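Let us begin with a simple case.
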Amino acid sequence: MRKYLSILFFLTVFTFIGCEKNGNDQITGPQDKSLGTAIQPNWIVLPAPSKTSLKKDIAVSQLINGSDESLIEINTGYAGGPFGWVSITANARFQRDSFTGQKLITMSISDQFGTATFSPSGTFTKPVIYNLTIMGVDLSNVDPSKVIFAYAADDGTYYAAKYDQVYVEKQSGKLQIINAQLPHFSRYAFAH
């Protein structure tokens, strides 16, 4: 009986410690709503993987020193879709002096929508420069002129991110965001 009570005690303590929220774990939306106009996105869905391919989100973590220029990269792919293969290449470049101290930064890409998610939350003195290329997407029902790259704000609204260019090539199923400026961490994805 003591053994079961001890196990129950430790599980309870670890559950409360593990689920404890602090201000650093929350996704931070922009403080300045002038960064974009609220939109209602229609997210672009990535192809399902073939039966022999394992569907999963991909994440990488790296200790970043805010006073140095640093790069986090993801390069992955899976069998599936109308072209037989879906490739995802992403990188986030932290500019010199973009934040103070060091942080373990995690960048993850969802294989359902190509959603980029970053943690921990935070805002930056210089924006993180983000590039994403996804190849092998069925874009037959997508108007390339209406594709944007958007983020989810903390109040549940969505805003178009600032970027140099969105590139859409229907023939090869290519979606690309070039030099998106991320002033804060949130969830970012292609929409139309």
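The second case is a distinct protein. As before, the sequence precedes its structure tokens.
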Amino acid sequence: MVSDSQLISLVKMLSKRIIGDDTAEKVLDVLVSRGPMTDEEIAQVSGLHINQVRRILQKLAEEGFITFTVPQTGRVGAQQMWSIDMSALRHVLHRRIREVIEKLRERLRYESELGAYFTCEKCGGHYTMDQAMEFEFRCPLCGDYLIQESTESLVKAINSVIEKLKVAEQKVARSV
């Protein structure tokens, strides 16, 4: 079973990749510690600019990491209350793990069928057999000779990651 703190840590890591910096972590920390809040309250507590907070909230909501509600106050213009729904978050994480496993399986099929590829030691380019033959086994970028490499180690690495993700998926599934 995945604990709430482990789940939040994973969401912070993913959020950093989505947003591109640590600002989403500040927003998530505020929501975790204080509970549902308006965007203005989050900006005030986090020290971030309101427009920055709104952009982060929108992206996190698009990913399913946070949710919002509009309180039924009876007044026009009631502000949205942003929060983290741990149950929904577990479902999102479970779905994302399954998606990653499927993409890795596709890559595994491709690499298994490929068997070998060619690299340029000078500039790091990677090419299939067909591409290497087309370029007469010379790098099209720098002209250096291409070296044949096996996909065996890559296939093993992908299999290892898939197995680890399956374990993680089972842990998350038990907590959903």
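The chain has two domains: 4-84, 88-175. The first helix runs from residue 4 to 19.
Keep these points in mind for the review questions at the end of the chapter.
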